[in-house]
Specification:
Elements lengths: L6 H14 L5 H16 L1 E10 L2 E9 L17 E3 L5 H8 L3 E3 L16 H6 L6 E7 L5 E10 L11 H38 L5 H21 L4 H16 L10 H4 L7 H8 L1 H7 L7 H12 L34 H16 L10 H10 L7 H9 L1 H11 L8
């Protein structure tokens, strides 16, 4: 296979592989892998499915022809699953573990077991034509996922279909990318296991909650950064760090008593002051900074309960190694790090939208009215504006990860 790939293609993939191995977050990595695969083949669109619980779960999609701004890809979060069987193209490739090229999915030759599902085309008015589907294999030679590259744009060559060189180069790249994907999956699993440990202590800290907060945070940040003229490279690098850091915003609750965390009903003043210390405990876990991620995770753990008007907590803590005698006064305005301000809104929105042991979920319109009312009080006005600018994305994230805390994590 490698002999079919031109030397400059191999060198290009080697450089790409160096870049993708820098990514830690699974979603950021899948986005980059899909983008690079499309660039290698001049493809208009593509998608990635990952294997979970014996099914193919739709994880990522890109499409240059759809009229959706890159900074608000709400269709990315659509929830779709496929059975791993021969009925679909992706399922067939997952079972056979061999790549497949189809010149026109609307004219699949007779005698094959799979068919094309045109529902996405109908919804978006897109026209899928040529599709290259490859398996993503892990180190144990098991299928982790499926990548589909769609509609090459090789107008100078007349017929716009994938050829053998495209299939060879994408397979070669997929084999290299799979190593990075396997590492990112391990990182995500470690994070979710930490969350499950927290869930044993705090029933509100579920995998669904942290996945939603992480996804809300990166999309709010992306819109905010786009509005503020941040270049795309910096946006992608920050997204990679932010999702995992935001997922760990409440990890400091492991230091709070079970009696308080599992109490039904209102907390006393003393109990609430004790709960407030979870911000300090969480920040302590990320001291001895060795990376940008440590710094961001520590900032978020410490400051996601600060308020724009200064009425939040914990305020300035001069020494994280010693329990503070009291908290406050809170940080105010831009004293609060940007990522703390973003996660503050993401966390409150999700908490109000979710049922908890001590409260019912709020009606959506009431939640949105509350956020509007708190613009410039609890929340940074620019973050609120970014939130509402991408609200269809927020709703799609809810649909993907579930809206009730009764769902399993």
């Amino acid at each position: 296979m490698v002999r079919q790939i031109q030397r400059d293609g191999i060198l290009r993939i080697t450089e790409i592989n160096k870049r993708i191995n820098r990514y830690r977050d699974l979603d950021s990595l899948l986005n980059h892998v899909l983008r690079e695969s499309r660039l290698l083949t001049a493809a208009d669109a593509g998608s990635i499915y990952m294997v979970r619980d014996g099914k193919l779960i739709f994880e990522y999609v890109q499409n240059d022809s759809l009229p959706v701004p890159e900074h608000s890809p709400h269709f990315q979060y659509q929830h779709q699953t496929l059975e791993i069987n021969h009925e679909s193209i992706a399922g067939h490739v997952a079972l056979t573990r061999r790549s497949l090229v189809i010149d026109d999915v609307y004219h699949i030759p007779p005698g094959v077991p799979y068919t094309f599902n045109p529902s996405f085309d109908r919804i978006t008015r897109y026209r899928t034509r040529s599709v290259l589907t490859v398996p993503l294999m892990n180190s144990r030679d098991l299928v982790m996922g499926i990548m589909q590259i769609i509609n090459p744009r090789k107008e100078e060559e007349g017929e716009m279909v994938f050829d053998q060189d495209d299939e060879a180069i994408v397979n070669y790249f997929a084999n290299l990318a799979a190593v990075a994907i396997e590492k990112a999956l391990l990182t995500r699993e470690i994070i979710l296991r930490m969350i499950k440990m927290s869930e044993l202590r705090d029933p509100t800290e579920t995998a669904l909650h942290v996945n939603r907060v992480g996804a809300y945070s990166v999309e709010i940040y992306h819109r905010w950064a786009w509005d503020h003229g941040i270049d795309d490279g910096e946006i992608q690098r920050t997204r990679d760090l932010l999702r995992i850091a935001a997922m760990l915003h409440d990890v400091g609750k492991v230091g709070i008593s079970d009696t308080i965390l599992k109490k039904r009903g209102s907390l006393t003043g003393a109990e609430f002051r004790n709960v407030q210390l979870h911000t300090v405990y969480g920040a302590r876990l990320f001291t001895g900074i060795t990376s940008d991620w440590d710094e961001m995770a520590g900032q978020i753990a410490m400051t996601h309960h600060e308020r724009w008007d200064g009425d939040g907590y914990p305020g300035k803590i001069p020494d994280l190694t010693r329990p503070p005698r009291r908290l406050g006064p809170g940080l105010r305005g831009e004293e609060i790090p940007l990522f703390g301000r973003i996660v503050a809104l993401a966390d409150v929105y999700d908490a109000l939208m979710s049922e908890r042991s001590y409260k019912q979920s709020w009606r959506e319109e009431n939640v949105l009215d509350h956020i509007r009312a708190q613009r410039g009080a609890h929340f940074d006005p620019s973050i609120v504006d970014s939130f509402f600018a991408i609200y269809p994305v927020i709703q799609s994230i809810q649909q993907k990860y579930g809206n009730g805390e009764s769902l399993p994590g």
